[in-house]
Amino acid sequence: MGVVRLMLICCSLLPGGTSEEWSMKALPRRAISSSCVVIPCIFDIPSHSYTALDAAWYKYWYYWKYTVAYSKDPNYAMTTFVGRAKIIGDLDGKNCSLRINNVSPADSDIYYFYVNAEGYGDHVFKDPVQLQVLDVPDKPDILLPKDLQEGTPAHIICKCLSTCPDNQPNLTWSELLTSSVNTITENGGEISAVLTFNPSFKHHRLTIRCMCDYPQTRHQVESSVTLHVKYSPRNTSVRMILENGGRISLRCFSAGNPEVHNFTWFKISQGEVTNEKLAGQTIVVLNGFEEEISYYCEATNLLGSSQSLPIRIPTEYGAVILPESRCTQYLTNLTCLCLIRAHASINVTWAMPGRTLGQKGSDGIYETEWARAGSLVTSTLTIRGSNMTVQMVNCSVMNSQGGLQRQLEIQAVGGQVGSRWGLMWKIGLVSVGGAVLIVSTTVICLIIKALRKNKKPVPNGTNQDGKANPEEQSEIMSMKPKPKKSKYVEMIPTLPKMSQNKDVRNLEIKSNHGVSPKPGDDLYENCDFVEGALYANI
User: What are phi and psi of 338, to 5 degrees?
Assistant: First the structure.
């Protein structure tokens, strides 16, 4: 493959016909250190037929010729070029191409060629060839079309230095959508990679890279370029801004290259579209229409146009209470949500029979608060208390152009029937518990009263059999008089005292009977149970 390319290069150097003069043409070369270089060369003599006896490449050192390569003897050359330089062209075919391997910056010089033709003798050609050896290869060159336009296929060329057929660089492109790469070789010691793709608005301002990798020298160089693709307007939209005095600003946004130079506005009313014949990126319209009106814009540049989606203008009051607004009745509170769609500032108030509340505040029972997220305003009313009964709640909205209100529906959690049964179930449980407590207390009092009748204490603190009763005596001795008589007995647990003879149960019994009760008095005779007393707070 390298020989074929060399022949093509040499053919491009051939003159149109046989010359009547001695002539030689060779292309200057820029090589990469540690690689090789091939210098294409052709020559001509003033004869249609000839025989080349020998030829050589050399360079001058002052007035002396130093042979670089000799056709008959590869060892007849400067020491530094022996084994590295060789004439690879066919001299009988007037091809004088030279190859030098493992070049270094010291090989950078001007080289001359001579040929010894039969019947002519040695002839030195006056025109030399320049060789430059680089330590690092040049960055690749990227060639772009003058215009990249959406929908028109484009070709981008990346060129890398390549002077050695055995060490051609590998060219790679950064990934690009809908693209393909073809590699070709050009004259002049360069290899090219052609990137073919269909430009799109997505490629605009996209940076792509071309990298050249030289395997033998381990050099990697790259270049990048930013694409500028021309495309018609895209992503056209309208933004609405509410201003004071009921005016609304509409601004049209669109992306295009070249930039959009014309904006046209259209109005949709009752299903009919009207060209407003308004120019400019921003227009001002009035707020306050009762019917539904929408606007959209059309953006145009040199390549085409694009339309936005319609945007609806707020109705009469510039605010709408959404139908999702409602109140929810819980066991311990009532919570109401008023959802408003509004673009301008608004004031929300709550009203119910006998009371009106602002949009934010709290007095312990009634609490209001509000929040805005874009054009959605959420106002919340919370009424605390299980005994609170509210039949009607109104949400009112006011702005600079007027107001509107809505009566909110009140719903119970789980439905009204379910709530009643839940409440009755809880009341039933409390009632049963109270009844059990009353019966238990009554039975205990009757048992104690029966025991007192069977064993009554006497004034001197003895039993009926005449013997002293320590427990009875300790209880009687610990009784303290009360300033006022009461109909209850209070039993207070106390800590035991080591110096006194107290009841082993550590109880002090306080009574309204004084220190020495009469025989037959019963400490529990005043246990009085009022029916239904435990239900007082239910």
Answer: -115, 115
Put residue 307 in one of left, alpha, beta given phi > 0 → left and psi -120 to 50 → alpha: beta
pLDDT at 269 over 60: yes
**Residue 192 counted as domain residue:** yes
What value does the mean pLDDT take over residues 88-113? 92
Which secondary-structure segment (H or E) carries 355?
A: strand 355-357
Same domain, 93 and 60: yes
Per DSSP, the three-state class of 79 is helix
Quote the number of domains for the chain. Answer: 4
- Asked whether residue 115 falls in the same domain as residue 164, the answer is no
Does any domain span residue 466? no
Q: Which residue has the tokens 């990697």?
A: 220
Spatial strand order of the sheet with 179-186 comes to 141-143, 154-161, 190-197, 179-186
For residues 16 and 114, membership in a common domain is answered with: yes
397, 405 contact by CB (below 8 A): yes
Q: Which of 28, 14, 1 is nearest to 95 (CA)?
A: 14
Judged on CB neighbours under 10 Å (0-12, 13-18, 19+), 257 is: buried
Q: In sequence order, what are the beta bridge partners of 31?
A: 133
506: left (phi over 0), alpha (psi -120 to 50) or beta: left
Tens-digit pLDDT profile for residues 382-430: 998 877 778 889 999 887 666 778 889 888 886 543 334 344 444 454 4
Residue 478 has pLDDT above 90, yes or no: no
Q: Is 233 in contact with 304 (CB distance < 8 Å)?
A: yes
Do 218 and 243 lie in one domain? The reply is: no
Q: How far apart are CA 275 and CA 262, in angstroms?
A: 14
Amino acid at 18: T
Written as six digits, the tokens of 291 are: 């019917």
Please indicate, yes or no, if residue 438 is contained in any of the structural domains. Answer: no
252 and 325, same domain (yes or no)? no
Q: Which domain holds residue 240?
A: 231-312
What confidence tens digit (pLDDT) does each residue in 172-213 have? Answer: 888 776 677 777 777 678 888 888 888 989 889 989 999 998
520 within a domain of the structure (yes/no): no
Instruction: Give backbone dihedrals phi and psi of 391, rounded to 5 degrees, phi first.
Output: -95, -25
DSSP letter assigned to residue 95: B
Q: Three-class SS string for 416-471?
A: HHHHHHHHHHHHHHHHHHHHHHHHHHHHHHHHHHHHHHHCCCCCCCECCCCCECHH
Strand partners, 377: 340, 372
Hey, what's the torsion of the CAs at 220, 141, 164, 127, to 10 degrees?
A: -140
